[in-house]
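Today's session is about reading a structure prediction critically. Students often jump straight to the picture, but the first step is always the sequence itself: look for stretches that repeat, for charged clusters, for runs of hydrophobic residues. Only then move on to the predicted structure, which in these notes is written as discrete structure tokens rather than atom positions. Here is the chain we will use throughout the hour.
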Amino acid sequence: MAIAPSKLGDFVAYQWRSDEYLARCLRAAGLVRPDVPDADLFGVFQKVLDEHEALDDPSFNSPEERVRVFLAPFLTDKGTRWAVPLDSLRLPDEEEPGSPK
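Below is the predicted structure for this chain, in token form.
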């Protein structure tokens, strides 16, 4: 079963150049809580990639969309709104640092 797209998944796909860069972008956009250590975020990113590699058929899922599930405990209210599949795609674009255009 495919994972439906979200605004957070789009953001992650656009920003994931490295774990460090993605963590900075998530923080700059106010999507993850500031008290969450980078090590916890990096652990999430690695867990997502490990699980993605282990899938028999990864064509229905992308790490960018799967990451929102694993980030759930660390998201701000805004991040949680951005993680809602499909509905979040209708949220207005914001001109914030790290926002996809």
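Discussion point for the tutorial: Helices lie at 7-15, 19-28, 38-54, 63-71, 77-82.
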